[in-house]
Amino acid sequence: MHLRVVAVLLPAVLAACATPRTMTRQEMLDVTSRTYCGVTKEQVLKAAEDVLRLNDPRDVTIAWPDENTMLARHRWLVYFVLGVGSGQHVWQFRAGDPGDDGCLKAHVLVSDDSVTSTYGAFGMTSTGAYTVSPGTATIPGNVINQPAVYELFWAQVDYMLGKRNTWPTCKEWDERIAKNLTYGNTEPLCLFVNEQISPDDPRAAEILGG
User: Using CA atoms in the order 198, 49, 107, 189, what is the torsion angle rounded to 10 degrees?
Assistant: First the structure.
């Protein structure tokens, strides 16, 4: 598993507990689905798979429950100064068969399946010596209900299908969020431990089996 060491106090990271802005039912339906015309189901499934493999090739696992569905699990592990953070993102992607009009419907969901962190808590003995005691904190998994990560995912799928001229990046989406053009958590694609390899990278051909 790909590892990174960061100088961050993990309890401070976990302390962010403000209620996030979320989408309505209709907004969720709109942002998690796309209609593609002039391409095959196999091309759409391959484009989605390639996006997730390029994002972090060493830590993503792909499964195919049936001919229309792809499941992808991305596991990550981070060493902090005083502890360890770990978790996984689970992607569910489905593409239907084209209709008489040559168009098909695709749908995606991503969840923070689980995040478990272990850290040390500082204390002091009666003699003045510092001690560190272990502790754990777990954030339960849930489906991401904010648009930014879905918008970035679809934009990258569009690029792989030749429907977009430039490769969309996490930096670009950070700028969109900063300008209030969208909102939400992009970590499933933009977590700093992800390799985020673009299709133009010399490594991409080997990763995608080209």
Answer: -40
By CB atoms closer than 10 A (0-12, 13-18, 19+), residue 209 is exposed
Tokens of 25: 């039912």
pTM summary value: 0.80
| Partners of 77 in beta bridges | 3, 86
Is there a contact between 112 and 84 (Cβ–Cβ < 8 Å)? no
Is the CB of residue 78 less than 8 Å from the CB of residue 4? yes
- The DSSP-derived string for 116-133 is EEEEEEEEE-TTS-EEEE
| CA diameter of the chain | 80
- Give the tens place of pLDDT for each residue, 103-116: 999 999 999 876 56
Question: Span 72-90, mean pLDDT?
Answer: 77
Token output for 105:
């419907």
Contacts of 139 (CB under 8 A, 6+ apart): 14, 87, 112, 114, 115, 116
Note whether 112 and 191 are within 8 A (CB). no
Cβ contacts of residue 13 below 8 Å, gap of 6+? 85, 117
